[in-house]
Design goal:
single chain, 10 strands, ten-stranded mixed sheet, 13 helices, alpha/beta, globular, 367 residues, 41% helix
Length: 367
C-alpha cells in the first residue's frame, strides 16, 4: 500500500476508555504500518496525556501532541491534527469509541476504487448499560441481516420515544419525504456512488458523523475545510462542507465501520452530554452556518441540511432548565435562523413553534 491514512483523535479526560479506542486502530486489518495515528491532548487533567505518550513511545505509527492551552472543545485538537498530519487520506476517531477492525481497509478500498473524495459507512449506536444496539439511520433499504447474520440491530430512534411514534410520526417530521435520486428506494442498496451530492441529496439525511468517513487529503486541504469553533455542531458543519464540496462520494449502506458508545452513568460525562446554554447556542449557530453553506444549492438540500436537527434541538431545550436571560439568547439564535431560512413551509412551522415555546418559557419563568 503506497498511501497512508492519518487518523486524528481529539483527547480530553477520556482515560478509562482511551486505550480501547487506540487499540482499535493499532489492530486494524489494513496494518498499522499504513496508519498515522495523531493523538492531540487538549490539556487533560487525568491520565490521558500519559497514556498517549506510552503509545507514542511504543508504536512508530503513533504521534502524541500536547496542546499548551485548553481549547474547550474537539474542534481545536481536530484542526491541530489536520495541520500536523501527512497522510494521503484523513479519518477521525473519538477516543472513547471504537473502529470496527476492518474499517480503515474497507473504507480505503471504497474511496480508491471509485477515485472519490470521500467514503463512509454505517455505525452501531451502543447503549452500554442498557445492552441495546441501534443501527444508524439510512434513507435507503439495507440488507444488514445478510451482512451481519449474528447481530440484531434495532431501528435508529435517537429521541428515545416509543417506536410507533418514531416510525409513524417523528421520522417523517425529521427527515421529510424521500427524494428520488440516482438510486432506487424500493429494494435494498449496497453501495451508492455519486459524483456530486446533487445526485443524491438524501445522503445529507444521515447523522453528520465525521468518524464514519474517510476523506481524501486534497478535499480538506485544497478546499480549506476546517472545524468551526462550536462546542457542539462542529461535526455537522464539517461533514456538510465536505459533502457539498466533494468530487465523488461513496456510501456503503451495509457496512458497519464504527461503534459509537452511549454512556449514561454519572462518571461518564463529556462535553456533548453536559447540556448547557452554550451547547444549544452553538448547535443553533452550526445550523445557521449549515444553511449559509447551502445558499446556492437546491431547496431540497437547504431543507435537509437543517430540518433533521431541529426537533432534536427542541427536545433537548425542553428537557433543560434555563434562566430567562439564557432563553432570550437562544430565542435570538432561532430568530436569526428564521430570517435566513425561508425555503420550506415545514421548516417555517418548526422554527415558529420553537420561538413560541421559548417566548412562553420566558414569560412564565421566574428569575
Amino acid at each position: 500500500m503506497e498511501d497512508k491514512i492519518s487518523i486524528i483523535l481529539p483527547i480530553f479526560n477520556v482515560g478509562p476508555h482511551l486505550r480501547g479506542g487506540i487499540d482499535s486502530l493499532i489492530n486494524q486489518t489494513i496494518g498499522n504500518e499504513n496508519l498515522e495515528i495523531i493523538m492531540v491532548d487538549d490539556c487533560s487533567t487525568d491520565e490521558s496525556g500519559k497514556i498517549i505518550d506510552e503509545y507514542d513511545e511504543k508504536y512508530d505509527c503513533c504521534k502524541a501532541i500536547h496542546l499548551e492551552k485548553n481549547t474547550g472543545a474537539a474542534n481545536g485538537p481536530r484542526n491541530r491534527g489536520i495541520e500536523e498530519c501527512s497522510g494521503d487520506y484523513i479519518m477521525f476517531l473519538d477516543p472513547d469509541d471504537r473502529y470496527t477492525l476492518d474499517a480503515c481497509e474497507v473504507l480505503y478500498n471504497a474511496v480508491t476504487k471509485y477515485d472519490a473524495d470521500m467514503a463512509f459507512g454505517r455505525f452501531r449506536r451502543i447503549y452500554t448499560y442498557g445492552e441495546t444496539i441501534q443501527k444508524s439511520y439510512s434513507p435507503y433499504l439495507d440488507d444488514l441481516k445478510s451482512a451481519y447474520p449474528d447481530e440484531i440491530f434495532e431501528t435508529a430512534n435517537p429521541l428515545n420515544v416509543p417506536d410507533y411514534v418514531w416510525d409513524h410520526i417523528l421520522e417523517h417530521a425529521l427527515y421529510g419525504k424521500k427524494i428520488q435520486g440516482k438510486y432506487e428506494r424500493n429494494s435494498p442498496v449496497d453501495v451508492i456512488h455519486v459524483k456530486s451530492i446533487k445526485e443524491e441529496p438524501d445522503l445529507l439525511k444521515m447523522a453528520p458523523s465525521v468518524w464514519s468517513k474517510i476523506f481524501k487529503r486534497e478535499l480538506i486541504m485544497d478546499k480549506n475545510i476546517r472545524y468551526q469553533p462550536f462546542v457542539s455542531g462542529d461535526d455537522l458543519a464539517f461533514t456538510l462542507e465536505t459533502l457539498l464540496k466533494a468530487d465523488g462520494i461513496v456510501y456503503l449502506n451495509n457496512f458497519m465501520c464504527y461503534d459509537y458508545y452511549v454512556r449514561d452513568l454519572p462518571d461518564d460525562k463529556s462535553i456533548t452530554n453536559n447540556v448547557n446554554v452554550r451547547f444549544l447556542s452553538d448547535l443553533m449557530d452550526s445550523y445557521i452556518y449549515a444553511r449559509q453553506c447551502t445558499e446556492r444549492f437546491s431547496k431540497d438540500i437547504q431543507t435537509i441540511s437543517v430540518n433533521p436537527h431541529l426537533i432534536y434541538w427542541m427536545h433537548t431545550w425542553k428537557n433543560s432548565p434555563f434562566t430567562k436571560s439564557e432563553n432570550k439568547l437562544l430565542l435570538s439564535k432561532v430568530e436569526k435562523l428564521k430570517r435566513i431560512h425561508k425555503s420550506d413551509l415545514k421548516t417555517k412551522m418548526l422554527l415558529s413553534s420553537m420561538t413560541t415555546a421559548i417566548e412562553s418559557a420566558i414569560k412564565i419563568h421566574k428569575e
